[in-house]
Amino acid sequence: MTHNQATIVAPHALVLAAGPGVRFGGRKLDALYRDRPLLWHVLGVVQAACERRLNDGGCVVVGADDENTDRVAREAGLTVVVNHEPQAGLSHSLRLGLDALSTTPAVPAMIFLADQPTVRLEVIRRIADAGRGDMHAVRPRYGDRPDVLGHPVLLSRAVWRSVSQLEGDAGFTALLSPPAAKMIDIPGDNPDIDTLEDLQLLERTSG
User: Fold this and answer.
1) From the CB of residue 2, how many other CB atoms can be counted at a distance below 10 Å?
2) Which pLDDT tens digit goes with each residue over 35-45?
3) Dist. CA 59–CA 55, nearest whole Å
4) Confidence class of residue 176 from pLDDT cuts 50, 70 and 90?
5) What dotted CATH number matches 3-198?
6) Contact (Cβ atoms closer than 8 angstroms) between residue 86 and residue 53
7) Are strands 36-37 and 32-33 parallel, antiparallel or unpaired?
8) How far out from the chain centre does Cα 47 lie?
9) Separation between Cα atoms, residue 182 and residue 193, nearest integer Å
10) SS3 string of the chain?
């Protein structure tokens, strides 16, 4: 490893895992994909990214009564941030997570959604590489659904304060669509699992 490589500071990971999963029928993150809970897939990739210094630790925002998610997050070596109002939407979880990370070294945050079990390590690498320098935000654009703004999203500290403008389930998509964010073209897809039908479709179509 060269001196320059050794001094690069990786972004913190922020995994949003407090949603109640109403459309799924509840307990969504415990649902099995390839014989493992949905959350296990996401945290496993984040853990691998931390081991490879693509992420520098991070936190998981969990619902106050979600003991399973809390336990799995701690087992992955990530800090747990408790959301006592998950019904307030994604924006509330974002605020809680970024507030927690604001006390850590001043590096960007990489935002993950806990219901995207096909997130890939190589995508994390490409997003992290693209975010070095003066970029305020970087996000993937997946080839199978180019009209859908993808995750994970890299956010510099300069844009964290913008989260105060968000309400309900509005994520940074409302503020950081092109050209405000640098888009990285990625083959394939990284779909959300919102309903049981989404999970069944993924099981049928994934290789």
Assistant:
1) 7
2) 999 999 999 99
3) 11
4) low
5) 3.90.550.10
6) no
7) antiparallel
8) 12
9) 25
10) CCHHHHHCCCCEEEEEECCCCCCCCCCHHHCEECCEEHHHHHHHHHHHHHHCCCCCCEEEEEECCCHHHHHHHHHCCCEEEEECCHHHCHHHHHHHHHHHHCCCCCCCEEEEECCCCCCCHHHHHHHHHHCCCCCCEEEEEECCCCCCCCCCEEECHHHHHHHHHCCCCCCHHHCCCCCCCEEEEECCCCCCCCCHHHHHHHHHHCC
Integer Cα distance of 73 and 62 in angstroms: 9
CA angle 55, 98, 63 (to 5 degrees): 95
- Going from N- to C-terminal start, the domains of the chain cover 3-198
Let me know: does 160 contact 109? Beta carbons within 8 Å: yes
Structure tokens at 63: 């619902």
pLDDT in tens, 34-76: 999 999 999 999 999 999 999 999 999 999 989 999 999 999 9
Burial call 107-132: b when 16+ CB within 10 Å, e when fewer: bbbbbbbbbbbbbeeebbebbbebbe
φ and ψ of 98, to 5 deg? -70, -35
